[in-house]
């Protein structure tokens, strides 16, 4: 007899059995995309639950995650609540950007934001923004309930720095 050469991917096309390499690759890509979407939806749902558990007042809260960006919509009770929701979402592992599309029921001045660096303390941050390290409780209170202890902040964390009254 002898050795015969064939087009290996032609069998599926002619006989309708098996899959071509391109079909298998397309199916694998679709499966990976569906799995990614499920992970993003689950993460968004957990973040919505966290916001609810923290008793932050937001009507019709909706969080969507695509890649490393979260989009947040809903109506926050006030500006502080809105900013806290952004911080809860943004300080979550895997989120690099928050697209804040929330509205506010009771308006008030916006706070500044500070990204914690190595060596920061709430006292040092208060000294920078308020000129007085002893004003650190203002920052601590502004970041409750996300902060449980004024000594437990970490580099990369973003904190609200409200204006002093």
Automatic annotation (TrEMBL):
NCBIfam families: PRK11198.1 (NF008399). It comes from the Bacteria. InterPro entries: Bact_Kbp, BON_dom, LysM, LysM_dom_sf. Residues 23-64 form a coiled coil. This is Potassium binding protein Kbp. Pfam families: LysM. Keywords: Coiled coil, Cytoplasm. Residues 112-161 form the LysM domain.
